[in-house]
């Protein structure tokens, strides 16, 4: 039965072949239409297929795609790097899927560009495919050299060759990797951060001057006055950090604030050869608030750190230590004229004559009583050394209470001179108040009339007011001790019984008279 079917099939095939051409037969047996790119070869199956040897299909592909064959041979591009030897083209590309079929099957999102031999790094990783792979051209036709893509960006216009990678990298085209130290001008300090075009105005990078002034002429505040060798003072890190040995060469050491001052602050003309003054006043005349009164040797008081922090050893140099309030005084308070003029007095009276409430009566040695902490502060005077020691409340009384005229000399020592308003006796008991009163308090007084006057106050006499007997000052009129001198008007006998009233009368009561002796 099987042999009969085979024989029948051969008969039918023979009859069909007799009526159909060979090309038509192959097209009828084709599994599907080929892609649009191969459409013109669709009727020529032998272009891609060898009926006698199916393994030769890859060879036939490469006979047509000679550029791919070359890449495989040279190990170039995607095919040359990604494919192993004897890899069949049909492993990736399948035909007969229709005219619109994509036989390349390239997934742009997941494609590993490193297998092409051109690894994407730096800015290349973010570049769009069409930036390098021109539409309508094969992917393999893309440029693989820097210059091929970046020719228009080449500031050197090709004069430095096409190997851009020798200096530039894919991260930043403007950042050069050129090893400048291999030239005759190594880049140090700020030079290493400068853009190439700042010095190389010629894209060829040839005949670039190496003298500092060639680039820094506009920075030269000396206007060429120091010559073209800027490096003798300036460094490559910071132009303004000049290292000129001012002490050795300029004979003027720059210390303190001078080391921070810009050169042109003193060398105003810009020509360093122009001689400038080396005295403080030469530059600081405008800062001299003394108006030249203290001479031109500013350094005797001021230092180079801060102009306003003046220090002058007044004790060692002027032999007059400034203590207390003297230390806080402005120099001009005492030095009203040039120091080259008459010397200032060192005694207190020389400066404080106007403050002397004693008007010179106490001499010029004010320090015997006054201190430097304050003219009225803690006035010290040992009153015990005078003829009037201060005891009791006198020790707490202000000086001017007694010395009202400020003269302090020939001041009366009589109590009444100060206590006249306090004298209830109106002067009738004289000026020697201390006979009764004491300095602990005016009202603390005591007087033993019997001992002091030999006339004891007994009876009614003890109750009498002092003024009852002492009508006139006691130091002017001495009172009698006889009764009649005081009681003449009380004597009803009108002197008939004499002046010794005590024979009959007593001091207790005048009217209780009786012979007593």
Write the layout of secondary structure elements.
Layout: H1 2-19, H2 22-29, H3 57-64, H4 66-74, H5 77-82, H6 146-150, H7 196-199, H8 212-216, H9 246-249, H10 263-266, H11 280-284, H12 314-318, H13 331-334, H14 348-352, H15 399-402, H16 415-419, E1 437-438, E2 441-445, H17 449-453, H18 466-469, H19 483-487
Antiparallel strand pairs: 1-2
Brief summary of the model shown:
Among the domains are: 40-86 and 127-142, no CATH class; 277-344, no CATH class. Helix content is 22%, strand content 1%. It has helices at residues 2-19, 22-29, 57-64, 66-74, 77-82, 146-150, 196-199, 212-216, 246-249, 263-266, 280-284, 314-318, 331-334, 348-352, 399-402, 415-419, 449-453, 466-469, 483-487, and strands at 437-438, 441-445.
How helical, in percent, are the residues? 10-25%
Radius of gyration: 65 Å
User: What is the residue-mean pLDDT, rounded to a whole number?
Assistant: 81
- Uncertain segments: none
Q: What structural category do the secondary elements indicate?
A: mainly alpha
Question: Quaternary status of these chains?
Answer: single chain
User: What is the count of DSSP helices, taking H or I runs of 4+ residues?
Assistant: 19
Shape: elongated
What is the rounded distance between the termini? 210 Å
Tell me about the largest β-sheet. Answer: 2 strands, antiparallel
Find the count of extended strands (DSSP E, 2+ residues).
Answer: 2
What portion of residues belong to β-strands? under 5%
Order of helices and strands: HHHHHHHHHHHHHHHHEEHHH
What topology, given as strand order, has the largest sheet? 1-2
């Amino acid at each position: 039965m099987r042999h009969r079917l085979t024989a029948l099939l051969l008969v039918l095939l023979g009859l069909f072949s007799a009526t159909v051409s060979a090309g038509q037969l192959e097209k009828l047996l084709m599994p599907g239409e080929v892609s649009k790119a191969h459409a013109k070869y669709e009727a020529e199956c032998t272009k891609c297929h060898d009926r006698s040897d199916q393994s030769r299909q890859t060879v036939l592909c490469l006979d047509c795609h000679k550029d791919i064959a070359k890449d495989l041979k040279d190990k170039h591009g995607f095919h040359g790097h990604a494919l192993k030897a004897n890899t069949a083209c049909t492993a990736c590309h399948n035909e007969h899927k229709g005219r619109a079929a994509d036989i390349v099957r390239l997934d742009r999102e997941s494609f590993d560009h490193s297998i092409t031999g051109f690894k994407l790094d730096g800015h290349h990783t973010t570049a769009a495919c069409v930036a390098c792979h021109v539409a309508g051209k094969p992917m393999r036709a893309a440029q693989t050299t820097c210059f091929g893509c970046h020719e228009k960006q080449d500031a050197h216009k090709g004069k430095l060759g096409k190997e851009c990678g020798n200096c530039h990298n894919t991260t930043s085209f403007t950042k050069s990797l050129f090893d400048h130290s291999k030239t005759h001008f190594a880049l140090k300090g700020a030079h290493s951060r400068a853009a190439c075009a700042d010095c190389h105005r010629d894209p060829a990078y040839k005949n670039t001057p190496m003298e500092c002034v060639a680039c820094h002429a506009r920075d030269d505040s000396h206007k060429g006055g120091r010559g073209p060798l800027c490096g003798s003072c300036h460094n490559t890190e910071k132009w303004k950090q000049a290292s000129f040995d001012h002490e050795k060469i300029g004979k003027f050491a720059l210390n303190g604030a001078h080391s921070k001052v810009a050169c042109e602050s003193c060398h105003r003309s810009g020509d360093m050869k122009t001689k400038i003054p080396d005295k403080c006043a030469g530059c600081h005349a405008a800062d001299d608030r003394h108006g030249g009164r203290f001479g031109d040797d500013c350094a005797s008081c001021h230092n180079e750190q801060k102009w306003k922090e003046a220090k002058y050893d007044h004790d060692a140099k002027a032999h007059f230590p400034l203590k207390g309030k003297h230390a806080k005084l402005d120099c001009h308070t005492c030095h009203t004229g040039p120091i080259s003029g008459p010397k200032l007095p060192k005694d207190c009276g020389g400066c404080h004559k106007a403050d002397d409430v004693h008007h010179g009566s106490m001499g010029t040695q004010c320090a015997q009583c006054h201190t430097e902490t304050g003219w009225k502060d803690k006035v010290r005077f040992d009153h015990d050394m005078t003829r009037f020691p201060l005891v009791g409340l006198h020790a707490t009384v202000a000086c001017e209470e007694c010395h009202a005229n400020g003269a302090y000399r020939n001041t009366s020592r009589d109590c009444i001179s100060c206590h006249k308003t306090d004298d209830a006796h109106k002067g009738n008991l004289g000026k020697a108040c201390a006979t009764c009163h004491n300095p602990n308090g005016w009202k603390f007084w005591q007087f033993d009339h019997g001992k002091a006057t030999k006339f004891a106050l007994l009876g009614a006499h003890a109750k009498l007011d002092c003024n009852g007997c002492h009508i006139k000052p006691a130091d002017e009129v001495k009172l009698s001790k006889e009764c009649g001198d005081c009681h003449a008007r009380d004597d009803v006998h009108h002197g008939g019984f004499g002046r010794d009233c005590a024979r009959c009368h007593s001091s207790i009561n005048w009217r209780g008279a009786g012979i007593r002796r």
